[in-house]
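Bug #77: duplicate submission created two jobs. Keeping one. Sequence:
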Amino acid sequence: MQLNRLIGCYHRKLKDRTMAELKLYPVGIQTFEEIITRNLLYVDKTEYVYRMTHSGGKHFFLSRPRRFGKSLLVSTFKSYFQGKKELFKGLAIEKLENEWTEYPVLHFSMAGGKHMEKEQLERYLGRRLAEQEKVWGITSPAVDANDRLISLIQTAYEKTGKQVVVLIDEYDAPLLDVVHSDVNLPVLRNVMRNFYSPLKDCEPMLRFVFLTGITKFSQLSIFSELNNITNISMRNDYAGICGITKEELESQMSADVDDLAKKMGKSREQALEALREFYDGYHFAAQSPDIFNPYSLLNAMAAGCLDYYWFSSGTPTYLIEMLKKFQVMPSEIGSCEADQSEFDAPTEGMSSVMPLLYQSGYITIKGYDPETELYTLDIPNKEIRVGLYRSLLPNYIGMNTVKGTTTIAKMSALIRRNDMDGAMQMLQAYLATVPYCNNVDSEGHYQQMMYVIFSILDNYVDVEVRTPSGRVDMVLRTATHLYLFELKLNKDADAAMKQIDLKEYPKRFALSGLPIVKVGVNFDVATHNITDWKIEAE
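Kept job's structure:
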């Protein structure tokens, strides 16, 4: 109770920030000490630091998507265990911590260990160990990585007389690009397992061990005998440890929201709603607060406008490879129900792509039913939905994505004006310029192509929607209309429209409250394009 009262008082003080107190945003800066000393904006997570370090546990693991603040959190732990009390002035932990004991800290980042063969990775680990060995005066290191880590821990422990803190950021970075490979993954995984193996044997000399990453590998495959790791990734009490919660945005960043609203020419509530639509929607536990993507949110604040910042920073190739490996269609990414074991699962040996999609942040928790213990999962927000389908677009419309996205943007403008005919004309003209892809002789290919395109248009879209008399190929809902699409292959638009009428698809959507428009479309295998279409208002 005392802890909660102190934190509550602290947050009330934060609400008093004014526009004059706006700070610069630490975009791309992941070092806690630099953020504090330069007086940059810091969203206070130190209560979590105190809670974890005083929980009685010793080994902790946290999985979060890329650019979600994991590195900054690790850096915060580093400054805390180094006893740098002055850096935490005015933060929540200042009123919680009384001792501020300094411990020896071994900090490793595996972020640079990507795209490497076995020998390269071994040399990379050797350099990271050498950096720490220099600090502790080890001049004649052992040969193997595990022995060198043991020596480091022993030396730090003996020289200081205090237990050692080990912080490992992005522990899985060397493995992500080969997670789809049955040949390369085991080789690199063994290298990393050898490196991490001392964390068990050195336990008496360790005060605290914290590992972060994107994916969850099985303890057996990576951490060998280390069976006492506390995985906080889906714990309710740590759900808000990374990212920016709705409460933090509206309190600690209240003045920043007002400033953004001014720059965008919107009211405060309009700006908040736009931020929620683009960057909110993440949940990492059954009882999680609403969480915003911190990278995109801070970039939007700094730039004064909303954009697809997270996706602009790179779409991991391993994700696209895994979608191909499991033959996942775009329409299959999204709303579903699942047991925790189906998505919070080790990524090696996956039977589906769901664990990787969840752990990478492309789908997130949207609901939980305690009776069935089932979770509802879906794409978090507009940024992820549009960005993801843009990355999948080349599989359907060729590699000229610049022209493709331009075409889609113009189609979006036409559809907003309820000019579906104009949008279809534009799509037909574009497809005439695109070299055909593989597997274009199936209706499913064109259905998925249309699904991807309309998903990018920022509208609700679904495929194979059930009705009492059959399935509608695709349903598109805009702000003003509901479009029912029937797609045919090597027939004609009349045949598509006849099926809509024969099956009485519009009756299924009579209560939608929107005018219903029927759209019959025919594709031709020989030309790999739309031949004709028919549009009728119900």
